[in-house]
């Protein structure tokens, strides 16, 4: 068994307040026996615009938030996985970057969110996440002590091919830090996360933002842990800040994949061919 903790937050605009919240929760999780802690998407600064991020989010080198987070991992002797933070890039945009620290405080892996939400939404202006963020292009799997960890962030969960690739690359646990809106959370949160667990035979760890934020957004919360067979084994019942703890029996990964060997039964296939429009004869 390995004990993990998910931090549910209502992150605001000021890094200092968010970092203090993370520090408190990490210590609480360690006291409860966790060896791995996951925070939500945009844990350090949750701003809505490029201007808001430019005032508060630093670059990668010499970033004081990263130094403080490394100290938290080191002081508590655990793997600290910051679901994501905004990192300023040279082109004026930002990376939505996930960072894993080991118990010595060293960064052992990073992942930049691949899939960006660009959509024309009825009744409001077009939403272009790509106007603020630069999408990543590399899937990531890394050692997190007792398990192999696959990385994803929020909107990624709608793209099953990424999760299959992570599982086939050796992941037995996949992190899904998120900031889901309330309407999409009610409709899709549980079903998508359970589907990703079932199709990969992985544990899914989904740490969420929840509640009303200073940037004007409301997020769904309901941080949860899904076992490889698809059952929810731990969940925050609402959107309030707090911890979700779970013990992972990693043998369940092997058992689920033996019962439904979808990862090895998959086959390559040609793209759909256009067939005739009807029968004549």
Give a verbal description of the structure.
Helix 1 (15-31) packs parallel to helix 3 (64-76). The model has no long low-confidence stretch (mean pLDDT 94). The protein has one domain (2-263): Nitrilase/N-carbamoyl-D-aminoacid amidohydrolase. It contains 7 helices and 16 strands. It has helices spanning 15-31, 50-56, 64-76, 160-168, 182-200, 251-259, 262-265, and strands at residues 2-8, 36-38, 79-88, 94-101, 107-112, 118-119, 127-128, 141-143, 148-150, 173-175, 203-206, 210-212, 218-220, 224-226, 232-235, 242-248. The strands form 4 sheets. It has a 6-stranded mixed beta sheet. It has a 6-stranded mixed beta sheet with strand order 8-9-10-11-14-15, with helices on one face. The chain is globular and about 60 Å long. It is an alpha/beta fold and 281 residues long.
What is the mean predicted local confidence, pLDDT?
Answer: 94
The residue fraction in helices comes out at 25-40%
Largest sheet: 6 strands, mixed
- Report, as a whole number of angstroms, the end-to-end distance: 65 Å
Topology, element by element:
Layout: E1 2-8, H1 15-31, E2 36-38, H2 50-56, H3 64-76, E3 79-88, E4 94-101, E5 107-112, E6 118-119, E7 127-128, E8 141-143, E9 148-150, H4 160-168, E10 173-175, H5 182-200, E11 203-206, E12 210-212, E13 218-220, E14 224-226, E15 232-235, E16 242-248, H6 251-259, H7 262-265
Parallel strand pairs: 1-2, 2-3, 9-10, 10-11
Antiparallel strand pairs: 1-16, 3-4, 4-5, 6-7, 8-9, 11-14, 12-13, 14-15
Helix pairs in contact: 1-3
């Amino acid at each position: 068994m390995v004990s993990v903790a998910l931090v549910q937050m209502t992150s605001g605009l000021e890094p200092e307040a968010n970092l203090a919240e993370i520090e408190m929760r990490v210590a609480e999780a360690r006291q409860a026996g966790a060896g791995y802690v996951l925070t939500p998407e945009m844990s350090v600064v949750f701003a809505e615009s490029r201007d808001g991020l430019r005032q508060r989010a630093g670059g990668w080198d010499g970033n004081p938030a990263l130094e403080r987070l490394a100290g938290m991992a080191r002081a508590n002797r655990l793997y600290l996985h910051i679901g994501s933070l905004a990192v300023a890039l040279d082109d004026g945009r930002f990376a939505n970057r996930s960072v894993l620290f080991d118990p010595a405080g060293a960064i052992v892996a990073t992942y930049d969110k691949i899939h960006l939400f660009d959509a024309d939404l009825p009744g409001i202006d077009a939403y272009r996440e790509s106007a603020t963020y630069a999408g990543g292009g590399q899937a990531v799997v890394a050692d997190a002590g007792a398990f192999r960890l696959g990385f994803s962030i929020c909107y990624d969960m709608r793209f099953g091919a990424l999760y299959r690739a992570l599982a086939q690359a050796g992941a037995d646990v996949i992190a899904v830090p998120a900031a889901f809106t309330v309407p999409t959370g009610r409709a899709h949160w549980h079903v998508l996360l359970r589907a990703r667990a079932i199709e990969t035979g992985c544990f899914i760890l989904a740490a969420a933002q929840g509640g009303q934020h200073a940037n004007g957004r409301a997020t769904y919360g309901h941080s949860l842990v899904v076992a490889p067979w698809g059952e929810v084994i731990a969940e925050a019942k609402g959107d309030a800040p707090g911890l979700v703890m779970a013990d992972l029996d990693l043998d369940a990964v092997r058992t689920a994949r033996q019962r439904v060997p979808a990862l090895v039964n998959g086959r390559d296939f040609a793209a759909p061919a256009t067939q005739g429009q009807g029968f004549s004869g």
